[in-house]
Specification:
heterodimer, A: about 280 residues, alpha/beta, Rossmann fold, 6-stranded mixed sheet, 4-stranded antiparallel sheet, globular, B: about 375 residues, mainly alpha, two-stranded antiparallel ribbon
């Protein structure tokens, strides 16, 4: 594959070889204010257009909620951003310098995008503290992992995150024995340990009680600012409680964007949500 | 309290490891003493036959540990570890063949008997160097390691997992078996390599050499076990378990899952190769039958019976099943495979954590 590309390059006489051109810096550049650019993205599975000409921009430090009926393409969009799915067309940039379509999952994670899954996936056979340790930002190569020891600062950081997600007393419990809500928090905690610039949070309050929801809302709000947060959620009350900016997806593209009130009074949105 | 109990698990020298090493040392010492100092015919005398049999079991135990590392901790169900074992064995066998020198049936100073028989005039290029022990030892590590590396690099990078990977590993060992059966390959074909005389100048038939090989195997098992224990207790070991339980999640927090798998798989193949190299001088033969896919499946059964993801369980399983095999095949040779299948089904249904898991639970209930 790369050999083919190389031959292609040599045949084009009017341009400089890719390998001579300076490497794009892997540093995140948000000087233009946006941290994520998704442009003209389309992807189809067996002819079904899951994402159709999607354009979406996320500002730095923003807390954005994405809503939409089932099958609107919310999870597929996250898959594209994190490298799990490759779009058929379009471009995805993290900051204005990192081309997400050229990276694979670990590279994207390393670049600074963290993801919380719809179904909480923690490492059930590990202790809570191990889950956080594994997620911690840093060199994740095989050889470093083999000789890794936790430093005092790292231990402190883990305790700090445990405090934030309210699992301090469960530090040495098996993650598999936590309740559903606690697993959700642990996963958010793992996101925090990764210290990403952009957090993608898929249905964070599914299966949570009202108190738990309130705490999650607080947590996400406190994260916005230093991090950019994208939340996909079905629960409208929850969305109302955290978001000032909402995007509505429908059939794979953006239907409406604006504040919660604007969106809710938008006739197109009402139609999609309530039916004809 | 809970804190302490859990922390004990992470120590490389935890209680189970301590007992394992203690038992291994005790057995090695006892066997040496009973073999050397108790006169033959005495009831406590440990015959050289028994010593070699035990040495064989310890080779199997090391092989089982290597499989447990990739299957128990990393979730790669390798049904081809017999291939790495056999390759290590062949490397050692080639050295032993070269040691025969002109004492073969045909008395050729350079060519092993089977080559003379096939009318070959010169030594194939890949047989050069095997007259030196250090070179052969290097090959014992390099050949299985390299094969595992190349195989793993292709398989893990393409994200072949689960049952597909298991089938490919079966195909790998089957293909090697077919290749080694061919006389043209230059590894003795169907008959393999045998009729060894000496290793590093020591007569392979002598009691002292037999005992020495047994002790080397015990040492290799101890060291191999500790190396695995180190990996399992490190952060890499926790990453491996994370890969086993939630592979794509591990990828999303930034680990290169393919590399984690590749390195641990390669290391495990090297261990299997070392086990094979120690096995061959003790049993005195290596032939393509060692590549038989059934053998590789049997290793997995040892680990399942002993208990996955414990390391010591693999040792227990390998010794138990092979002891059963030795006794059973002497008694009802045709029924052994049925018995083995029966044991596997029984363990899967009633002892999902193997024999050691069952004993641990009993112990906890008593405590």
């Amino acid at each position: 594959m790369s050999a083919m590309n190389f031959i292609e390059q040599i045949r084009q006489r009017d341009r400089v070889f890719d390998f001579i051109q300076p490497q794009a810096s892997s540093r995140l550049d948000v000087s233009h204010g946006n941290i994520l650019y998704l442009e003209d993205i389309s992807v189809s599975f067996d002819g079904f257009k899951a994402i159709n000409n999607l354009n979406l921009y996320i500002k730095e430090g923003e807390l954005r909620c994405i809503i939409g009926p089932n099958g609107a393409g919310k999870t597929t969009m996250m898959d594209i951003i994190t490298g799990k799915t490759r779009p058929d067309t379009g471009s995805a940039w993290f900051g204005s310098r990192i081309n997400l379509l050229e990276l694979d999952e670990p590279e994207i994670a390393e670049a600074g995008i963290g993801r919380k899954f719809q179904k909480p996936t923690v490492f059930e056979n590990h202790l809570v503290v191990d889950n956080l340790e594994l997620a911690m930002a840093g060199n994740k190569s095989v050889i470093t992992s083999l000789f890794a020891r936790l430093s005092a600062a790292q231990k402190e950081r883990i305790d700090e995150v445990l405090e934030t997600i309210g699992l301090k007393d469960n530090k040495y419990r098996l993650a598999g024995s936590l309740s559903h809500g606690q697993k959700q928090w642990l996963e958010i905690g793992m996101l925090l340990m990764q210290n990403p610039k952009l957090l993608l949070v898929d249905e964070p309050v599914a299966g949570m009680t009202h108190q738990e929801m309130d705490r999650t809302a607080e947590l996400l709000k406190s994260l916005a600012g230093q991090h950019s947060v994208v939340v996909v959620e079905h629960d409208m009350d929850f969305v109302r409680s955290i978001a000032n900016h909402v995007t509505v997806l429908h059939q794979g593209s953006v239907l409406a964007e604006g504040t919660m009130d604007q969106v809710q009074s938008n006739p197109k949105v009402v139609e999609v949500y309530l039916g004809e | 309290m809970l804190d302490k109990a859990l922390m004990n698990d992470r120590l490389i020298f935890d209680k189970k490891t301590q007992s394992f090493l203690a038992i291994l040392t005790a057995v090695a010492l006892l066997v040496s003493l009973l073999n050397t100092f108790v006169p033959e015919g005495h009831i406590l005398h440990c015959s050289t036959f028994t010593v070699t049999l035990l040495g064989k079991y310890l080779c199997y135990a090391l092989l089982a540990v290597s499989v447990d590392l990739v299957w128990g901790y990393l979730g790669i169900l390798s049904l081809g570890h017999g291939a790495f074992f056999a390759l290590g064995g062949y490397a050692m066998g080639m050295y032993l063949m070269r040691q025969i020198g002109d004492r073969g049936v045909y008395g050729d100073p350079l060519l092993p008997d089977f080559m003379v028989f096939l009318n070959w005039k010169e030594l194939p290029w890949f047989w050069h160097g095997f007259d030196m022990f250090w070179f052969a030892s290097l090959m014992v590590i390099l050949v299985p390691g390299l094969l595992a590396f190349v195989f793993g690099w292709m398989a893990f990078r393409s994200r072949v997992t689960g049952v597909y990977l298991s089938i490919i590993t079966q195909a790998l060992t089957y293909a090697l078996q077919q290749a080694f059966f061919r006389n043209e390959m230059g590894f003795g074909g169907n008959n393999g390599l045998t009729d060894f005389k000496e290793i590093m100048g020591f007569d392979l038939q002598s009691d002292a050499t037999r005992l020495g090989l047994f002790l080397c195997t015990a040492l290799a098992l101890g060291l191999g076990y500790m190396a695995c224990r180190y990996i399992v207790c490190s952060k890499l070991g926790r990453v491996a378990v994370a890969v086993r339980d939630a592979e794509s999640r591990t990828r999303f927090i930034g680990y290169r899952v393919d590399k984690v798998k590749l390195w641990i798989f390669t290391f495990s193949a090297i261990l299997a190769g070392i086990a094979g190299a120690l096995y061959v001088p003790q049993v005195g033969i290596i032939n393509p039958g060692e590549f038989n896919p059934i053998n590789s499946i049997e290793i997995v059964i040892w680990v399942a019976v002993g208990g996955r993801a414990t390391l010591y369980g693999a040792v227990v399983g390998a010794i138990l099943i092979n002891y059963a095999k030795s006794t059973f095949t002497g008694w009802l040779p045709d029924a052994w495979l049925f018995a083995l299948g029966g044991i596997f089904v029984f363990v899967t249904l009633y002892l999902p954590k193997g024999v050691t898991g069952f004993l641990n639970r009993k112990q906890e209930q008593l405590a």
